[in-house]
Write a structure and sequence with these properties.
Layout lengths: L1 H7 L3 H5 L8 H15 L1 H5 L2 E2 L8 E2 L7 H15 L6 H28 L2 H13 L1 H4 L10 H21 L2 H17 L3 H17 L5 H18 L8 H4 L4 H22 L2 H29 L6 H7 L3 H5 L1 H4 L9 H8 L2 H13 L5 H19 L4 H33 L4 H4 L6 H17 L4 H18 L3 H28 L8 E4 L5 E4 L1 H12 L5 E3 L5 H8 L2 E2 L8 H12 L2 H10 L4 E5 L10 H13 L24 H5 L1 H6 L16 E2 L4 E2 L10 E6 L5 E6 L5 H12 L9 H7 L4
Parallel strand pairs: 5-6, 5-7
Antiparallel strand pairs: 1-2, 3-4, 7-11, 8-9, 10-11
Helix pairs in contact: 1-6, 1-7, 3-5, 3-28, 5-6, 6-7, 6-9, 7-22, 9-10, 9-12, 10-12, 11-14, 11-21, 12-14, 20-21, 20-22, 21-22, 22-26, 24-25, 27-28, 29-30, 29-31
C-alpha cells in the first residue's frame, strides 16, 4: 500500500497538466532514450550529436551516465514483446513514480535489516514515499537520473548491510551489481564509494571490525572497481580520480590491519613492537612519496564539484559556472523544513539510538550515513536528495522507539485497571531491569505458599520496581497525541507540496486569477514549436546554456551551448556576446555561425527566472575567460539596476537591448507608466531604441520567450563590382559581373 501511495502522490502533474517531460536535463535524457529505442545500442554508443555545442559537437556514448536510458528502453522493448505497445514518452514520464515505489520497499528492508524491527521499517517506507525532497526529483515527468538513482543508492546500502551481517560472498556480489547500476545511473555513486570505506575504517577504530566485513569489502572493492570501469564516462577515473582515493586507501589499510592482527597473535611482544616500528616508517615514507608524486604530476586531482563539497566557497571563487546553478547554492534552514517537514524534529533522537544506544553494525552505518549526508546537504541544496532517505530512516527509528515505550505504558495502565493507578500510571520497563523484575515475579509465585501477607508485600515491591522505569501514563498520552498530530501534519505538508510546488512543469507555467480560477502559460512550447516550423533545419540558435536541451529536444535545432556545460570557454563566449554592445555581439554571433538569438524575459508576466535575473552570472562566467569583461561596469554605485540609474554598459549590452526591445511601449499595470518591469519593480531606463544588426522574429504571447534573427552581412560583391566598373579601363567596360569577379584576383 505504501508503494502504491508513493506512485499516486507523484502523478499530480499529469492530472493537472498532461503527460509531458519536465525541466531541462530530462529533455536530453528523453531525446537520447528515444534515439536508443529507435536506433539500437551500437548506434547509441557511436552517436556523434552535431545538434549540440556547434561547431564542436558531442560524442553522446562517452559523455553520459546511460543507466536511465537503458532502463526505459528495456521496459519499452519488454512491453513491445508482450504486445502491450506504449509510447516511449509515457514510459519516461512514469518511470520515476514507479521507482519511487521500489525505493519504499528497499527503505523498508534496509531499516528492518539494521534495526530488526518491522515497525521501524514500515515508518521509514511511509516517510520516504512522501518526503518532499524526494518527490521534487521523482514526480511524473521528471525524467532525470535521480529518479532511478535514489532507489539504487538505498538498495546498494541494504545489500551492503546484508553482506556485512552475513559475511556472504553472494550478498557481496549482489551489492556490487547494484553498485554497478548506480554507477551507470548517476554521478552520485561517489557518495557510496566514499561512505562504505569510511564505515570500514570506522569499525577498525572502534574495535568492531570482523572477518565478515573483510569479506564483504574485499569483494565489493575489487569487483566494484572493475565493473565501474565498464562505464565509458567513468572508465579510468576509478584509478585516477581523487573521488575514488578513499576506497583504494582503505582497502590497503584493511589488509594491513588484518595482517598485523595475524602477526600479533603469532609473535612475541618485543618482536611485534620492532616490526611495527619498521612497518610504520616504511608506510609513512611511501605515503609521503606517493602524495608528492601524485600532487606534482597532476595524475590525480579533485574535480570542481568535489572541491565545492570540501570548500563551499571554492565554486564562487574559481568555478562560477557551478555556483551559477541554483541547486548548487548552500542550503538555508527554511529548505530543511520545506523538504523534510517535521522529520527534522526527531533526527537528534534517532542519532542517539543509532550511535549511542545498543549500537550494532547496521545502526552504526546508518549513523555515519546520516552525519555525512547532513554535512553535504548543508553545502549544496541538490544534496538534500541524498539526505532524504537517511532522514526518513533515522526519524522512523526515533518515532518507533518513542511509540513503543509510550504505547506500552498505556497498555499496562489499561490492563491493570484503575484500582492500581499509582503503579500503573508508569510505562515500559528498561531492558537491564527486565531480568530482576521477572525474578521478583517468580519469587512472588513461590512465596505465595508461605503466606498471603508475604506474597502481597513482594507483589507491591514488584510494582514499585516497575514504576521507577516507566513513562507516566499522562506523559505517554501527551506523547502519543503529539506524534499523531506531527505525522498528520507531515502527511498534509508533503501532499500539499507534491500537489502544488513540485508538480508544475517548468515548460508549462500557471497562475490564478482574482476569482481563483487557474490559467495556463504555454509560452515555452509555443516558441519552440515556432522555431521548429519557421526556421531552416540547419539553423543555429544562440541562447544561454539553460535552454539548450529543450531547444534540441523540442525544436530539433542546433544550439551553441547546452546543459552539459563541459566547455567553459564556449559558454563564456556566449556570455561575452550577451554582455557586449550590439555591434560587438553581432561579430561574436557571426563568428559562432548563429542564425537566431533566444532570450527569456519575465518583466511582462511576473516571471522572475528570466535572463535579466541570470545576467550577472553570464557576466561572471565571461569575465573568467575574457578579462575585458568587467562585472563592476554593470553596476551603478554597487547596485545592479535596469531603471534610469543603470550603468551605460548595462544599457548598451545585447541582453538589455533584446530583452527590453519595444517593452517601453507596453503598459503592464494600469497605475504604472509604460515600460514598468513587474519583476524588478521599476520603470526601465531606456525605452526607445532600434536594433541595427538583429531583427525581432518572434515574441511569445506573454513575452516570456523572445527570438531575434541575426541579420546577414551586406552583399559586398555588388559594391566591389561597382567600384571596379568605375575604375576599370575602357576595354573592360561592359563585361558581365561573373567575368569581372573571375578576373578580379588576377587584376
Amino acid at each position: 500500500m505504501i508503494a502504491v501511495l508513493a506512485f499516486f502522490v507523484r502523478v499530480f502533474s499529469v492530472i493537472r497538466y498532461e503527460s509531458v517531460i519536465h525541466e531541462f536535463d530530462p529533455w536530453f535524457n528523453f531525446r537520447t532514450t528515444r534515439f536508443l529505442t529507435e536506433k539500437g545500442v551500437y548506434e547509441f554508443w557511436n552517436w556523434y550529436d552535431s545538434e549540440s555545442w556547434h561547431p564542436l559537437g558531442r560524442v553522446i556514448g562517452g559523455t553520459i551516465f546511460p543507466g536511465i536510458m537503458f532502463t526505459s528502453s528495456m521496459i519499452k522493448w519488454a512491453l513491445d514483446f508482450l504486445a502491450f505497445p506504449l509510447d516511449i514518452r509515457n514510459v519516461c514520464v512514469f518511470l520515476a513514480p514507479v521507482f519511487a515505489g521500489f525505493t519504499s520497499l528497499s527503505t523498508y528492508y534496509l531499516t528492518k535489516e539494521c534495526t530488526n524491527r518491522i515497525e521501524s521499517g514500515l515508518l521509514a517506507a511511509l516517510f520516504i514515499a512522501i518526503v518532499p525532497s524526494y518527490i521534487s526529483r521523482s514526480v511524473a515527468g521528471s525524467y532525470d537520473n535521480e529518479g532511478v538513482a535514489i532507489w539504487a543508492l538505498v538498495n546498494t546500502f541494504y545489500l551492503w548491510i546484508k553482506a556485512v551481517n552475513t559475511g556472504s560472498i553472494l550478498w557481496s556480489v549482489l551489492c556490487t551489481l547494484q553498485y554497478f547500476y548506480m554507477v551507470a545511473a548517476w554521478g552520485g555513486y561517489s557518495f557510496i564509494i566514499n561512505l562504505i570505506p569510511i564505515f570500514v575504517l570506522g569499525t577498525m577504530f572502534i574495535n568492531k571490525f570482523n572477518m565478515r566485513i573483510y569479506v564483504a569489502y574485499s569483494v565489493f572493492y575489487t569487483l566494484g572497481s572493475l565493473m565501474a570501469m565498464l562505464i565509458t564516462f567513468v572508465n579510468f577515473a576509478v584509478i585516477k580520480s581523487s573521488e575514488h582515493l578513499a576506497s583504494h586507501c582503505v582497502f590497503f589499510i584493511m589488509n594491513a590491519f588484518v595482517i598485523i592482527e595475524y602477526v600479533k597473535k603469532n609473535l612475541q611482544a618485543e618482536q611485534f613492537k620492532a616490526l611495527t616500528r619498521l612497518a610504520m616508517s616504511v608506510s609513512i615514507a611511501i605515503f609521503i612519496f606517493a602524495f608528492i608524486f601524485l600532487t606534482l604530476s597532476g595524475a590525480t586531482r579533485f574535480s570542481g564539484r568535489a572541491m565545492t563539497l570540501l570548500d563551499p566557497t571554492y565554486a564562487k571563487k574559481y568555478v562560477p559556472i557551478i555556483a551559477s546553478v541554483s541547486e548548487h547554492q548552500p542550503t538555508s534552514w527554511s529548505s530543511y523544513f520545506f523538504d523534510l517537514g517535521y522529520l527534522i524534529i526527531f533526527l537528534p533522537i534517532g542519532f542517539y539510538y543509532c550511535l549511542v544506544h545498543k549500537v550494532t553494525l547496521g545502526k552504526l552505518f546508518l549513523g555515519m550515513y546520516g552525519v555525512l549526508a547532513t554535512y553535504f546537504s548543508c553545502v549544496m541544496i541538490r544534496l538534500m536528495l541524498v539526505l532524504a532517505p537517511i532522514a526518513c530512516i533515522i526519524a522512523a527509528i526515533a518515532i518507533s522507539e518513542i511509540l513503543r515505550k509510550a504505547s506500552k505504558s498505556v497498555r499496562v495502565y489499561l490492563t491493570q485497571g484503575f484500582e492500581d493507578s499509582p503503579a500503573s500510571m508508569m510505562g515500559e520497563i528498561d531492558a537491564p531491569k527486565k531480568k530482576s523484575v521477572e525474578q521478583a515475579s517468580s519469587s512472588v509465585e513461590t512465596s505465595s505458599k508461605k503466606g498471603k501477607k508475604e506474597a502481597a508485600a513482594q507483589k507491591q515491591e514488584v510494582r514499585k520496581q516497575k514504576s521507577k522505569s516507566r513513562i507516566p501514563f499522562d506523559a505517554a498520552i501527551v506523547i502519543l497525541l503529539f506524534i499523531i498530530g506531527t505525522l498528520q501534519g507531515y502527511i498534509y505538508h508533503s501532499t500539499q507540496l507534491a500537489s502544488e510546488a513540485y508538480s508544475s512543469p517548468s515548460i508549462i507555467l500557471s497562475g490564478r486569477k482574482n476569482d481563483g480560477t487557474r490559467y495556463i502559460i504555454d509560452d515555452y512550447r509555443e516558441a519552440y514549436y515556432w522555431i521548429k516550423q519557421n526556421t531552416p533545419k540547419d539553423a543555429k540558435i544562440m541562447s544561454w546554456w539553460d535552454y539548450g536541451y529543450q531547444i534540441t529536444g523540442m525544436s530539433n535545432r542546433t544550439v551553441l551551448v547546452d546543459n552539459n556545460t563541459w566547455n567553459n570557454t564556449h559558454i563564456a563566449t556566449v556570455g561575452r556576446a550577451m554582455a557586449s554592445n550590439e555591434e560587438e555581439a553581432y561579430k561574436i554571433a557571426r563568428s559562432l555561425d548563429a542564425n537566431y538569438v533566444l532570450v527569456i524575459f519575465g518583466g511582462m508576466s511576473h516571471y522572475s527566472g528570466d535572463d535579466i535575473s541570470k545576467f550577472l552570472w553570464m557576466v561572471r562566467i565571461a569575465a573568467g575567460v575574457f578579462p575585458q569583461v568587467k562585472e563592476k561596469n554593470f553596476y551603478n554605485r554597487g547596485h545592479y539596476r535596469v531603471d534610469n540609474m543603470m550603468s551605460p554598459t548595462m544599457s548598451e549590452s545585447l541582453m538589455y537591448r533584446l530583452a527590453y526591445y519595444r517593452f517601453g511601449e507596453i503598459r503592464t499595470r494600469g497605475d504604472k507608466p509604460s515600460g514598468f518591469d513587474t519583476v524588478r519593480e521599476c520603470e526601465i531606463g531606456l525605452k526607445k531604441y532600434d536594433l541595427k544588426y538583429f531583427r525581432e522574429a518572434y515574441t511569445s504571447d506573454r513575452w516570456i520567450v523572445r527570438i531575434f534573427e541575426v541579420l546577414p552581412l551586406p552583399n559586398r560583391s555588388t559594391k566591389i563590382y561597382t567600384r571596379f566598373q568605375k575604375s576599370s579601363p575602357p576595354a573592360l567596360k561592359g563585361f558581365s559581373s561573373q567575368k569581372v569577379m573571375a578576373a578580379l584576383p588576377k587584376i
